[in-house]
Sequence to fold (496 residues):
Amino acid sequence: MTNNSTATMGRLATFLQDQRKAFLQDLQDGNGQGWVVAMGNEAGDLDSLASSIAYSTLSSTLSPPTRSLPLLLTPKKYMSLRPENILALNSALIPTQQSRDGEIFLHLEDLPIDPAELARKGIKFALVDHNSLLPPFQSTDPSLKDPVVAIFDHHADDGNHIHASSRLIQIPTGSTTSLVTTYFKDAWQRAIQSGDERLEPPSELATLLLSGILIDTGALKAGPDVKTTKTDRDAAEFLYRISELGAQTTGNGSNSGMTMTVESLQAGRIPPDLTEFAKKLFEAKNDVSELTTHELLLRDYKEYTMHTSSESDTLNVGLSTVPMGLSIWLSRNIPAKGITPGWQPFVSALDEWMTERNIDIAGVLTSFNTPPKVVGDKGKHKRELVFLVRSRQQQPITDASITRAEEIADALTAGINGAGPILDAQVWRPHKPFHKNEELVQGLEDELMDVQEARQAGRFGCVWRQGNAASTRKQVAPLVKDIIASIPASTGSSGL
Ligand SMILES: [Mn+2]
Fold:
C-alpha cells in the first residue's frame, strides 16, 4: 500500500516537480525575486505537509498567481517515519520513491545556500501550521523587510509578522488544511466553474487536504469536546465534493445512499468511503510498533528555547509526541532492531538523544489507546508524560550543574503536579502498572526515582499519567514555558 514506486504521477506531482526545478534554477542564477517558499512546522506532520503543498499549489494556480513551492523540513531519510504522510501523498498520486524523472520535493538539505540567505535573495515565506519564522531562516541583515507574506495556523499567536498580507490564525481549528482551504475556496470554485482545465488546481490536492482534516479531527468526529470545528466541516464538505473520493460516491448513484453536507457531518454521519480512507490513514499513523526509541523521539519533535525569570538564562527544551503507551514501548523486545525491554534502555536512549539535540529538558508525550476488552472495542484514549532534566556540561559534571538540574526538575515536577485540570497529572507509581491489563515495566525506581542514582547520573525526571487526555503539546509547551519562566535565574552561568 505504501510501497508505491510504480504509482502514476498525477498533475499535482508534475506541478511540484516543475516548481522545484524552476526554483533551483532561479536560485542558481541568483534570482529569487517573486518566489514564495511555503513551510510547515519542524515536526512535519500531515497537516504541515499538506498545508504547505496546498498553499503553494493554490497560490500558484489561482488568480492572481504567484510562484510558490513547498519546502520540507523533514530530511528525506526520515520521511518513512510518518507512514500516514506517505499514504496521503500516494493517494494524491505523488510517488514517494525516488523518481527517475527527478525529485518532487525540495527538502531543507537540498538548498544550495544557507537558509538564512534566502530572504536576502528576495525570497518570501508563507508559514503554515506555525506562526513565527523558524531560526534557521532568519536573516542576519537588519535592513531587510520582513519576508513573511502569509500565515495560516491554529497554534497560539506569537504576535510576529503582523504585516503579512494574509494572516489567518484561528483557534480552535482542527486542522490548518481547513484554513488554507477556506482561504482559497471561492477562487478554487470559480476555477472549476470556468471549465478551463488549465486554470483548475489538480483534483488530487483535494484528497491530500482532506486527509489532513481527517487525521487532525479524528475523522471529522462530531459531538462534545471534539477537535472538529465548523471551519473543518465546511472545508471537508467542499473538498469531498471536488475530490476523487466524492466523485466516486456522489457520481452515478451514491454507493452510500448519503450525500455529505455540513449538517450531516455535524450529526456524525460520515460517508463510508471517507471513514474507510480515514481508517487506513490512522492505521498507517499508528504503525510505529517497530521503530526504535530514537526514531520514536524524532518522528514528531519540536524544540524550544525557554528562559527562567531572567531572559538571558535560557534552556533548550525538546518535546516528542509518540503514538505509543509506555507500557507497550518499554516492554518491546525486538533484538534484530536493537530494541530491548525495560526502563534502562529507554533512559539511555533519552540520554543520547539529549546529547545529540543539545537539550536541557526532554519531554515525551505519549498518546495511545488501551487494549480493547472485547472485540470491536477501541479501548480508551490515554496520554502519559515523561520529563527528564539533564546536566549537559562536559565531563566531569560539576556539583553546581547537578544541583541546578535538580532545582529545575523539582520546579518542573511541582509545576506539572500543580497544573490542575488542564493536565490532571498523576505521578506514575513505579511498582504498579497504570492499568490492570498493562504489563509492568521494571526498573523505573532505579533509573529515575532514586535521588542518589539520579545525582550520580546528573539526570532527574518524573513520569506521569495524564488524567486529561485531551491536552496535547499545544497545551503542554506553553505550560512548561510558564513553569520555567517562574524559576529564579541561575546564580552561576546560564543554562546547565
Ligand atoms: Mn497542525
Q: What stands out?
A: Residues 43 and 300 are 5 Å apart (CA to CA). The chain has two domains: 11-281, 289-485. The longest helix spans residues 399-417.
